[in-house]
Specification:
Elements (H helix, E strand, L loop, with lengths): L11 E4 L5 H11 L5 E4 L1 H17 L3 E8 L3 H11 L6 E5 L2 H11 L5 E5 L7 H6 L6 H15 L3 E3 L5 H8 L4 E4 L18 H7 L3 E4 L1 H4 L4 H15 L1
Helix pairs in contact: 3-4, 4-6, 6-7, 8-10
């Protein structure tokens, strides 16, 4: 593991993949102390999610801002400089060398931790071929993990299925965050490379991003508690 995680709840990041901040507030209120870490992506960020991030942080929660930045280096640098002022814990950028170098420059000496996205969990080898890549998913993930380590980012976002490959490349000191986690019996949805929480933790993941199995559950708090029990048993 990249570092000691003092609060076991921080290993579970709840994806607030909902359309409005009011939907998000309801989820946070429902989960209460069962969750301490939340992910805000495009959909919510563009609907007031940045103000929500500030509010959650003021309440002692942690926030993963999943914006997957990718642009010319200078533009990324300037964008990341702005994000450092929000107080979020994690920010994603795409794992292109110039993008990552720009992000590291923008982060400076702040506490913001940068995560590089290797290959989206909805992609398989066929999707990469369609996009013009000549590599299989596992080969692309390995290459981008190597580039991320050299660039000096703080961690990697990858499918749990590639966690062991990534850990072998980046060593013990970088964070691995895995989306696309599906508890046993859950539908995979649009994710093509998934593992259960137990499988992901045992493969070496530090944090698990879990959205639909919690926020769409009949009882989100009970679903989160069950997942935390599984994480605790695997840790």
């Amino acid at each position: 593991m990249a570092q000691k995680i003092n609060d076991l709840r921080d290993r579970m990041i709840v994806g607030l993949d909902v359309p409005t901040i009011w939907d998000a507030y309801r989820i946070v209120a429902t989960l209460g102390d069962e969750a301490s870490f939340y992910k805000i992506g495009y959909r919510l960020a563009f609907a007031g999610g940045l103000d929500l991030a500030r509010q959650l942080i003021s309440e002692g929660k942690k926030v993963f801002l999943d914006l997957k930045l990718h642009d010319i280096g200078n533009t990324v640098t300037e964008g990341v400089e702005s994000v450092t002022k929000l107080g979020v814990t994690f920010l994603t950028v795409h794992a292109y060398p110039q993008t990552m170098r720009g992000a590291v420059e923008g982060r400076g000496e702040s506490a913001l931790r940068l995560l590089a996205v290797t290959a989206l969990t909805s992609y398989d080898d066929g999707d990469l071929k369609d996009a013009g890549y000549g590599l299989a998913v596992r080969d692309l993930v390995r290459m981008r993990a190597q580039q991320a380590r050299i660039a000096g980012v703080d961690g990697i976002v990858c499918s749990a299925a590639e966690t062991e490959i990534v850990r072998d490349v980046i060593g013990p000191d970088m964070v691995i965050v895995t989306p696309g986690i599906r508890p046993a019996g859950s539908a995979a949805g649009d994710q093509k490379r998934t593992l259960t929480p137990t499988e992901a933790i045992r493969a070496g993941a530090d944090h698990l991003v879990i959205a639909r199995p919690i926020i769409r559950a009949a009882d989100p708090r009970a679903a989160a508690a069950a997942i935390m029990d599984e994480i605790a048993g695997a840790a």
